[in-house]
Amino acid sequence: MANITCKIDGIEVTVPDGTSVLDAAKKVGVKIPTLCYHPDLPAWASCGICVVKIQGSPKIVRACATPVEAGRGGAANNYITRDAELITTRRAVLELILSNHPNDCLRCARSGNCELQTLAADFGIREQPFEENFQHLPKDETTTSIVLNPEKCVKCGRCALVCQKLQGVYALEFIGRGETTRLAPAADVSLNESPCIKCGQCSAHCPVGAIYEKDETEKVFAALSNPKKHKVVQIAPAVRVAIGEAFGFKPGELQTGKLYAALRRLGFDKVFDTNFAADLTIMEEGTEFIHRFTKAPQELPLITSCCPAWVDYMEKYTHDLMSHFSTCKSPQQMEGAMIKTYYAEKSGIRAEDIFVLSVMPCTAKKFEVTEDDMRRGGLPDVDVAITTRELARMIKQAGIDFNALPDENVDPLLGTYSGAGTIFGVTGGVMEAALRTAVSKITGEKLPKVEFAETRGMDGVKTAKLNVGGNEVRIAVAHGMANIENVLNEIRAAKKEGKELPYHFVEVMACRGGCIGGGGQPQGATDEVRAQRTAGLYKDDEISRLRCSHDNPDVQAAYKEFLGEPNSHKAHELLHRHYQKRPVYSR
Question: I need a labelling partner for 427 at 20 to 30 A (CA). Which of 82, 322, 487, 532 fits?
Fold first, then answer.
């Protein structure tokens, strides 16, 4: 690819042809303000805040969507990113946006962490020169996971782009024209009736408070204040490498010990770790794969079921491949089921007296806990699921100085985990964890090296062929819902034509990067942030005394004392589920 040399405010820079002015400016340390732009998405140039000039030209262009060009005669174009006219123009754009935006920052879910609020402060906007002209639109609170408040929408387009382009779901779109344009679910139905899979990527990419997770912290505080309840909490793998961001730590810094301490300070009687159930999932799912691979090849490929947004998508869009889905519950639900049965039995506490909270990086987990097959004897496996963002708010509300907390240990029985359990939080991690156990079980040998580099990385789809005990095992790992359709279509084509299956084992995560980039994680995730969080989980794996799920002594004890063996009748009753065919639009 050819390179282009240009100047940014007189500073010379050489970048690949096609690089935007915005990215060229970043390379030389010049920050151009933006609102609609996000590095995950194609530049849409809707807000007009990133305007810049080309020296010697009367044009003002939008930096996010304008590629740098060489000047006439080979001279380097000089892009001017700041002068009095540009600052005045940007301020006017911001004032116009604010005139269409409710002025209730103190009651907004994004107060203090809002890109529009930050820009208004940066530009010193203290007055409103334009008459207020925002639409009075009702909130959509029909889902159990996310809330849509179209009054707050700045029409940046990020949510619609991420839903359509990255996720391939098409649950959100703009309806109307001109001043009446508004954000709404597709077909103008409620969000719960739309194709929405509750992944929360819209909320993770929204720059303001137009889409956010359904807050359930009051339910948790109420349970913590109830002396009749025995309060138990579990934390997901990806939470430990992101929670610190809310308290000034860098992304990816492991905060496991502080998390355990903070949860005890909040008032939980037992602090367990979802990583334990991730190890349990590998025992169940790995056994399921070994059975299909060795005894029932007609049931291949096996497709993972840990991600509830992916399960929601599958139940709506992939009815033809439903039999290939693993029947395993997600680790969150397995942990909840074990708490209300195994732990309840061991501790002599009635299941109905136990309140189980899960802290997840995911908004779809809120939907998952309400599903019918996530209940036993009328009791839900998990009572409430909150996001990483909600837990951060709870810690702050409770007056806990997170940064000053000592590191504490998890409670035993359902807390011990292996490195394989912790990498569940990153794309490829479930596959790698499963391979560590499956290869050991199939070959009957201890792995000399537990890392499977083939499953790692940020490619939307990763594929590999592995030699396992003389047999070829073909795998695929996909993250970001728009990427999975290509994999599914390959499988469909092979089955239809009677050809050899392209894959035996498929891992799917709805969110880019896996759970580390989940819809309930701290806002501001980019591939750079995802890489840091990913590195944190791999570090947790590397420093773990145990690296494989089948070596977890608490998992071994759970089978010996309670479950019997993987895929046993009791294990199926507690740890497995059924699927249902559901319409894309439900009314």
Answer: 322
Please name which of 582, 429, 585, 453 lies closest in space to residue 515, comparing C-alpha atoms.
Answer: 429
d(CA 249, CA 464): 36
Rounded Cα gap, residues 53 and 82, in angstroms: 9
Please count the structural domains in the chain: 3
Same domain, yes or no: 14 and 49: yes
Instruction: From residue 89, give the alpha-carbon distance in Å to each of 47, 126, 578.
Output: 12, 16, 57
Closest-CA residue to 91 (of 79, 82, 78): 82
Contact 15, 3 (CB under 8 A): yes
**How many whole angstroms separate alpha carbon 479 and alpha carbon 500?**
24
Please list, in sequence order, all residues whose beta carbon lies within 8 angstroms of the beta carbon of residue 75, skipping any fewer than 6 positions away. none
Please state the rounded mean pLDDT for residues 140-161: 95
User: What is the reported pTM?
Assistant: 0.95
Q: Cα dist. 479→103, 196, 483, 511 in Å?
A: 38, 17, 6, 6
Q: Is residue 229 scored above 70 in pLDDT? A: yes
Residue 422 near residue 237 (C-beta atoms within 8 A): yes
Domain-embedded: residue 519: yes
Do 327 and 432 sit in the same domain of this protein?
Answer: yes
Handedness of CA 397, 400, 401, 402 (dihedral sign): negative
* CATH number, domain with residue 7: 3.10.20.740
Domain span holding position 148: 95-213
In this structure, the answer to whether residues 196 and 182 fall within a common structural domain is yes
**Residue 126, phi then psi, degrees to nearest 5:** -120, -20
461 neighbors 427 (Cβ within 8 angstroms): no
CATH of the domain at 143: 3.30.70.20
Q: Which helix (H) or strand (E) holds 315?
A: helix 308-317
- Identify the band that residue 330 occupies on the pLDDT scale cut at 50, 70 and 90: very high
pLDDT of residue 514: 97
Residue 542 lies in a domain: yes
Is residue 494 within a helix (H) or strand (E), and if so which, with residue range?
A: helix 481-497
DSSP strand pairing (505-509 vs 375-376): unpaired
Contacts 24+ apart (CB under 8 A), 67-70: 67/17, 67/18, 67/19, 67/20, 67/21, 68/4, 68/6, 68/15, 68/19, 68/20, 68/21, 68/24, 69/4, 69/6, 70/4, 70/5, 70/6
Residues 336 and 301 in one domain: yes
Half-sphere exposure of 331 (CA within 13 A, CB side): 36
Residue 49 has pLDDT above 90, yes or no: yes
Task: Give the relative orientation of helices 84-99 and 115-122 as an angle to the nearest 10 degrees.
Answer: 140
Instruction: Answer yes or no: are the C-beta atoms of 424 and 279 closer than 8 Å.
Output: no
Residue 169: inside a domain, yes or no? yes
Q: How far apart are CA 476 and CA 443, in angstroms?
A: 21
> How far lies 574's CA from each of 336, 345, 542, in Å?
10, 14, 31
State phi, psi for 140 to the nearest 5 degrees: -110, 105
The pLDDT of residue 1: 67
What residues have CB less than 8 Å from 203, skipping those under 6 apart?
146, 159, 211, 212, 213, 363, 519
